[in-house]
Amino acid sequence: MAASQAEAFDRQWSVLDEVDLGNGFSAALFQRVDSNGIPIGEKVLAIRGTDNAWGLDAVANAQVALLGTAVGMPQYQALGRMTGARWRRGSAGAAGS
Description:
Layout: H1 3-12, E1 13-20, E2 26-33, E3 39-47, H2 56-67, H3 74-89
């Protein structure tokens, strides 16, 4: 990303929350802001592709394929905790909440 793009992004978006647990899960919740930094609209949840440093992707993919579920998987649990906490606080709902 060019410096000018990074500066434009910084002016237009605020980071509401970010999580990087070191288990391959990394996500950030952004909200659009006006020129004064006041939240004005949409929120975007950005989830990074998984980190395959320990071969965990293959294990996770096999679990989903064989068991048909993501229950008990640390990355999905982390996403659930992140989004669940924000929804309970009312900070991940519609624009302006």
